[in-house]
């Protein structure tokens, strides 16, 4: 009987230890949707990667400096303006471009793309879809008051449209879109 008891104790998984902390499961990387009047923005719940994002902000020639980041897709049912550029109603990729080796800073691009979804649940390395650049300008991130565990996007009401609020980890930026 003692041999059987010893074998049961030594068997893998036979006894759970109360001292061992459970390994938290990473949440699934899923497509989320936020909406405002006549606008929907789809984005992935990408986990915060401080080193990855820092590499995009710094001037350099590393992997993350050579790759654009299509972080969201925007559908509009009516024209919108971003700065002095009018975006016709349609389907757009929102793309961050990393800092360049010449330290020119990050930029945000609005790219007109074919209808349909290019974001892929579970895939944080989605390729930037083909399309026409409608608008592109420098973008600056500030330090956020809180740290988001994953990419969060909000469409905040504004007097003449909305602010696209992007909060990723401890970094945050906003861009105004007007009716």
Q: Which term fits the overall shape?
A: globular
Unreliable stretches (pLDDT < 50, length at least 5) are: 1-17
Strand order of the largest sheet: 1-2-3-6-7-8
Radius of gyration: 22 Å
Head-to-tail CA distance between termini: 80 Å
Number of strands: 12
In percent terms, what proportion of residues is strand?
A: 35-45%
The amount of helix comes to under 10%
What does this structure look like?
The chain is mostly beta strands and 179 residues long. Helix content is 9%, strand content 40%. The strands form 3 sheets. It has a 6-stranded antiparallel β-sheet, with no helix packed on it. Strands 9-12-11-10 form a 4-stranded antiparallel β-sheet, with no helix packed on it. The radius of gyration is 22 Å and the shape is globular. 20% of the residues are buried.
């Amino acid at each position: 009987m003692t041999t059987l008891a010893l074998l049961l104790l030594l068997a893998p998984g036979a006894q759970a230890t109360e001292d061992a902390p459970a390994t938290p499961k990473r949440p699934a990387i899923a497509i989320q949707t936020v909406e405002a009047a006549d606008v929907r923005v789809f984005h992935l719940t990408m986990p915060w990667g401080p080193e990855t994002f820092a590499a995009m902000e710094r001037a350099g020639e590393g992997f993350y400096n050579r790759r654009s980041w299509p972080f969201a897709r925007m559908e509009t049912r009516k024209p919108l303006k971003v700065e002095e550029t009018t975006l016709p109603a349609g389907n757009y990729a929102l793309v961050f471009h990393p800092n360049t080796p010449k330290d020119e800073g990050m930029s945000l691009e609005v790219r007109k793309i074919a209808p349909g979804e290019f974001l892929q649940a579970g895939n944080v390395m989605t390729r930037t879809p083909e399309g026409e650049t409608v608008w592109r300008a420098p973008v600056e991130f500030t330090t956020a008051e809180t740290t988001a565990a994953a990419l969060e996007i909000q469409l905040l009401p504004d007097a003449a449209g909305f602010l696209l609020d992007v909060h990723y980890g401890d970094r945050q930026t906003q861009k105004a879109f007007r009716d």
